[in-house]
Each structure stands twice: as structure tokens, then as C-alpha cells.
Design a protein that fits this description.
With about 240 residues, the chain is α/β, with parallel strands linked by helices. It has seven helices and eleven strands. The termini are far apart.
Amino acid sequence: MANVAVVFAGGVGKRMKSSGVPKQFLTLSGKPILVYTLEIFQHNENIDAIVLVSVENWIEKCHELINKYKLDKVSAVVSGGSNSFLSIDRGLRTASSLYPSDSVVLIHDGVRPLIDDCVIDRCIDSVRKYGSAITVSPAKETIIINKGTVVDNILDRSILQVAKAPQCFILSDILKAHDDAIREGMNDFIDSASLMFYYNKELHTVEGPLDNIKITTFSDFYVFRAFLEARDNSEIFGV
């Protein structure tokens, strides 16, 4: 039994348009976004190991970063697939070859660096108790359903939540869902929560911070930078 983070950083960040550098390797204060994410799991006392899924051409760079930042919980670095589902699949199968089938696996975006120990610990507890943990945050804005350019319905924001990450399961359970999906020719699920929901698995939620953003665009990058600056200032001035 182990608690294993599967961090997938296999995308190339087309929306970021960052001169050929995948968004997870963009630096802030000299440190790549991916490292900020990995360090959260590295320093969490309940995480036993990390499996990193990377863009194939950047695997060597990942090993350099692992050594530089002493990320010794990273037990494997594997190349990603053609989409996020297949990238996660490769990470899960690597985890399955290294750790027991009853391990808790925390599936997380490499460009989602604003989670904390509390979220990780509560996710692990939820999986041990219920078999799943989907990190969520409340919807901040009004959600509408359109028919063309006409508003068809306005949803009750008070009952809506946004699914984020980590998304966490028992390793054998999520692997079975992957096996079923691949056998049925469905390899384009947008995330693990959607996959497990499709196969009628009961999903339990863990509320995380609103600032648990996924850095997809440059505006997200600037939000992350502002967050780090605010955190650094609060530490300096004891706020």
C-alpha cells in the first residue's frame, strides 16, 4: 500500500505560444512551473512516490530538474501519449508496475502548482474511506446554457462546483476503468473524473482553494506570479 502522485506534464502548451517551450517548463523566479508542482508532493509526508509523465523530448530535462531540486520521490519518468487520457494511462501503468494495486493514486496536472498539504491529505483520507476524491472549488460566476446566441437556461451557481485536481482513486479501480475504455475504443475522456463517472463509479469531492488554477494561458501565468509575490511579501512582513 502506497500513496503515489501521477503528475502528467505531457502537453506542449499550444495556447501559451511560448516559443516552443512547453508551459510546464516556463520559469518563474528561475524555477520551472513543473518543479513548483512536484515540490508540493515531494515535501508532503504522506506521499510515498511520484510518477512523472513528460513530453518525450523533455525527459532528459526532467531528470536534470529532479537532480537539481533533489526530488527523490520521483521514481519514474515516462513519455506521454497523444492526449491527456493516454498520458495518464502511461503513468498509471508505470505506477502499477512499481506499487501495490491497493495504492492511492493522486492524478495531477503538472501545471497546477497551487494546491497544498491540506488538499493532498484530505484526498488521501477520502480515497481510503470512500474510494475516490475529486478536488473541486465553488463556481465563482454565473453559468448559462446557450442555444446558439440565446440563453436557454441559467444554472443555480450555489450548487455548482468546478472539478479540478488532484483526482484520486485506488490504483486498481482507475486502471480497470482505463482498460474498459481502451477496450471499447474510447480514449478521449477529458479527465479521470469523467471517465469514472461514465462507468458509474461513485465520486466523492474534496473542496480545495479557489486559486487552484491550471496554468494554460499567459494570464494564468501572471496570476501565479502574483500569488507567489503576495506569498513572499507576507512571509517577509509577517502578515
